[in-house]
Structures are given as structure tokens and as C-alpha cells.
Write a structure and sequence with these properties.
Length: about 200
């Protein structure tokens, strides 16, 4: 009987979690970061970018298109509708990427053109630091399972970008914003007394 109750609670919490994905997109658009997986550092990154640029989308490295030398960057779940150049779509999936269960996914279609990525991470002493990069989003084929995806070209190339980005020690989540914003992020970092690793611009 106890096992049955636990199973029912688990199923209910999974359904509730899947319903929160489109719901969280509304406060994100209004400027309140709601990061999935309880990642407070990416919530800070989203808030910073939303404040300085008007967009703050949750993101992570998905893959690399080696033929086109492009990094594929995005995330499933809730996001910022202001980064989308057309009406977002909602999809019901049986399995979330990398997680158990399924439910609703909200897919956004980020603008092509300049994009800025910001990760809030910590150094070896536990102090905060920023990791930033600028690139250009291009049209092309993306993954089609209901997640927000961007095809980003970097001046240093996709392979070198992944190497440099990883060497800075970011968490696997980061935030994305349309436009070029490293100069403004440097000013924010100076006010907060936080060091910045610039990966590429």
C-alpha cells in the first residue's frame, strides 16, 4: 500500500513538473528567471542578460554540426518568448531529454544574428566568476524534438569554442541573449567585483 502511494505521488509530481514548463515561461518573459533543475547560477545569468538586453534564455551545449562548423545550443522546457522571432510552439513528448517522464515542451525560435552567452560559475576558491562569449545565430537544420535550438557560429570555430568554454569551468547551463553584450557585462562584473573569462567575440 505504501509503495502504491509513493508511486502515485511520483507520477503526480512528474505531471505537475511538466505543467510548470509552459507556466514558467510567462514570468521569464516578464523578467523573473525560472531556471529548470534548481540551477540558481543560471537563474542569475538569465536575470543579468534579461536586465541588460531584454532577453534571457536558458541554454546548454547540445551538439556540434561538424560539417558546418557550428555549435548547436539550446534547452528543453521553459524559456524567454522575447528571444523568439515567431510565435512559440508547445509540444507534448513522451520523454524529456535527459530526464524521466514526459509532458509539455515550449519551443522558441531565437532570432538569427548576434548572440551573447553568459555563464555564472565559481573558481577553485568558490568565488563567483562570469564566462562569456559572443557568436552569430544562423539559419539551418536544428533538432526537432520540441526543444529550443540555436545554430551558433563562433569566430574561433565550434571545436575551439567548446574547448575554450570548457576550460573556463562553467556549469553545463548558461544563458543566451540576442545581440552583443560583452562590453555591458564587463561593466556589470566591475560593479559586482566579479572576474570575467571572455571565450570569444
Amino acid at each position: 500500500m505504501l509503495v502504491n502511494t509513493k508511486a502515485k505521488v511520483g507520477v503526480f509530481s512528474g505531471v505537475l513538473d511538466s505543467m510548470l514548463i509552459p507556466a514558467f515561461s510567462m514570468p521569464i518573459k516578464q523578467g523573473t528567471a525560472c531556471a529548470v533543475e534548481g540551477d540558481m547560477k543560471v537563474a542569475m545569468a538569465m536575470s543579468i542578460l534579461k536586465t541588460i538586453s531584454g532577453t534571457g534564455q536558458l541554454a546548454e551545449m547540445y551538439s556540434i554540426d561538424f560539417n558546418d562548423d557550428i555549435a548547436i545550443i539550446g534547452h528543453s522546457g521553459s524559456g524567454d518568448a522575447d528571444i523568439s522571432d515567431r510565435k512559440p510552439t508547445m509540444k507534448i513528448v513522451k520523454v524529456f531529454h535527459g530526464k524521466t517522464g514526459g509532458g509539455y515542451l515550449t519551443q522558441f525560435y531565437p532570432y538569427t544574428g548576434p548572440v551573447t552567452y553568459l555563464a555564472v560559475t565559481q573558481d577553485g576558491n568558490g568565488n563567483f566568476k562570469f564566462v562569456v562569449a559572443e557568436g552569430v545565430n544562423e539559419e539551418g537544420k536544428i533538432l526537432s524534438f520540441g526543444d529550443t535550438n540555436m545554430r551558433t557560429r563562433f569566430t574561433c570555430g565550434a571545436r575551439e569554442f567548446v574547448t575554450r568554454w570548457s576550460e573556463c569551468g562553467p556549469t553545463h547551463h548558461f544563458a543566451a541573449a540576442t545581440g552583443r553584450h560583452i562590453d555591458t557585462i564587463l561593466k556589470v562584473a566591475k560593479i559586482l567585483n566579479v572576474p570575467v573569462d571572455i571565450v570569444t567575440r
